[in-house]
Specification:
Layout: H1 15-33, H2 40-65, E1 69-74, E2 91-96, H3 98-125, H4 138-154, H5 161-180, H6 186-217, H7 222-231, H8 236-253, H9 263-269, H10 272-297, H11 302-325, H12 330-346, H13 356-385, H14 399-402, H15 404-418, H16 424-439, H17 443-468, H18 484-501, H19 504-510
Antiparallel strand pairs: 1-2
């Protein structure tokens, strides 16, 4: 009805998150009513896996159909009157376009790998002694995981501030519980508490910035915020403070400097599947929200926020690499490596004012390449972590000789992350980012990136060298890849090999 407030819902547009939400409810029901059997956790894992594959198929069909789907739209009559006296165009809260579908595909594909890792983690916990002190409740685990993935799919399609914040919290809140679900583990409880405190602070900062943006512009829709900021010069100082606060809130989520301090302890204390979730799914969602905010709501203020993004990117990659060099635990090294990678993803956004399309394309392309490479590393780390003292880097000495499949997969992931052949996926990712930054005129940032790339070689190559070093005397332990985590390794390696051989698969979509 024209001029009314009744909204029609395009269920095809929201099909992917709807599938995930329905499967989450199904998992809870199955967990509550199915009789307790030894294979019950595996059934729940397979149901979760089926839901993710179904959602991924929906995203693929939407992408193949082309076009853009919009729903939850505000009619033009409720848009207010801009300075020219013409009614504002209709604005929508949910938009399924190429950007949102690509991020959703990355999140869901990563979710498949995380579920496979979770099946191995849960199976290992159920064999932890007669009292099962390490037991993880499978129903709650998979429900919370699906809730997080639902938020991660919703977030890149969000086009108003309220939906952005709600989706971001839907990504974050279940992760606290996932981190703490490993019972009787003091390190996991500590990690959950730290993650909770960091998230609460970041949410408060984000909401303060959002309230200021709404107060200045009178709208929550991103396109209308942009239009309002372009037509009014009032309250420039308040707008600047709002931008700083909102960007700082998202910086917490992606572990950018100076809001990176939580990453090492949280990754180390959380179960490895949750660390992988934080490293890929949560990070992809955080970057999706940040990109949407900067490029849809604040493109006219790029001259204000772009220099700050450049400085934060340089500090983030530097701090991440320096801290990673000092680590002796595999998960902590990957945590700080992930912080450094956030700096590389941020860097192209600093040239948005000069080349908007190239900047966003380079950031998203690097994010896609990074997700595949990092998941290989976490999958192998989960397999090795099951050994005594498996958290320490020394446990990887001679792994390529003792367990060739796991060792060679991890070596491939590390050379990819370092950007060295034959890890061409990582090399292409860095070239795309370097080209965007140099073409944008930020030569100093390109030099910082080059120096950090060389610094990163130190710990990536050192870890790779351990894999091929002679095992310690008497060391004959092997890593079994005949588990769900082994399948996860194979899937992630296959995708990364495809990206290395045919990088156009990613570059053509993000370009």
């Amino acid at each position: 009805m024209t001029g009314g407030v009744i909204q029609s819902i395009d269920y095809a547009a929201v099909a992917a998150p709807l599938v995930l939400a329905l499967v989450a409810g199904l998992v809870l029901l199955l967990d509550a009513f199915l009789p307790a059997r030894p294979g019950g956790a595996r059934v729940l894992g397979l149901v979760t896996l089926g839901g993710l594959v179904a959602a991924l198929a929906v995203v693929a069909v939407q992408a193949a159909g082309g076009g853009t789907r919009r729903t939850f739209c505000v009619p033009a009559s409720l848009g207010g009157e801009p300075a020219q006296g013409r009614a504002a165009p209709a604005s929508c809260s949910f938009v399924a376009d190429r950007f949102s579908l690509l991020i959703a595909a990355v999140v869901l594909a990563a979710g498949v790998v995380v579920v496979l890792l979770s099946m191995t983690e849960i199976a290992a916990g159920r064999g932890a002694g007669p009292e099962e002190r390490g037991r993880i409740p499978a129903g709650e685990w998979y429900f919370l995981l699906l809730a997080t993935l639902t938020g991660a799919v919703l977030l890149p399609a969000s086009r108003d501030l309220i939906m952005l914040v709600v989706s971001l919290e839907l990504v974050s809140l279940p992760v606290f519980a996932l981190t703490a679900l490993k019972r009787h583990d003091g390190r996991a409880s500590e990690a959950a508490l730290k993650l909770f405190l960091v998230s609460v602070v970041s949410t408060a900062i984000t909401l303060f910035g959002v309230s200021l943006l709404y107060g200045v512009t009178g709208s929550v829709h991103l396109d209308r915020i942009d239009a309002a900021l372009r037509t009014t010069g009032d309250m420039a100082q308040v707008t600047a403070v709002a931008i700083v606060l909102v960007v700082a809130g998202f910086a917490f989520k992606i572990a950018a400097v100076p809001f990176h301090f939580w990453a090492g302890d949280v990754y180390r204390g959380a179960p490895v599947p949750v660390a992988a979730l934080l490293s890929v799914v949560s990070k992809a969602s955080g970057f999706a929200g940040l990109i949407l905010l900067l490029t849809s709501a604040l493109p006219g203020k790029a001259a204000l926020w772009a220099p700050g993004v450049a400085v934060v990117a340089a500090l983030t990659m530097t701090a991440g690499n320096v801290l990673a060099m000092r680590q002796r635990a595999a998960v902590r090294l990957l945590a700080w490596s992930s912080v450094a990678q956030s700096g590389y993803i941020l860097a192209p956004l600093a040239v948005y004012a000069v080349a908007p399309r190239a900047a966003v394309g380079a950031s998203v392309a690097y994010l896609v390449f990074y997700a595949a490479m990092n998941l290989i590393a976490f999958a192998v780390v989960l397999l090795v972590a099951r050994l005594p003292e498996g958290q320490d880097l020394e446990a990887y000495r001679g792994l390529a000789l003792r367990s060739p499949a796991a060792g060679l997969s991890l070596a491939f992931a590390l050379v990819c992350l370092a950007g060295l052949p034959p890890g061409l996926a990582g090399l292409f990712a860095k070239i795309v980012v370097f080209r965007a930054v140099v073409d944008g005129g930020l030569g100093w940032l390109a030099l910082v990136m080059a120096a950090n790339t060389v610094a990163g070689l130190y710990y990536y190559i050192a870890w790779t060298a351990r894999l091929f070093a002679p095992p310690a005397a008497g060391e004959s332990r092997t890593v079994s890849t005949r588990t769900a985590a082994g399948v996860a390794v194979a899937v992630a390696v296959a995708v990364t090999v495809v990206f290395s051989v045919v990088p156009q698969v990613v570059l053509s979509v993000t370009g």
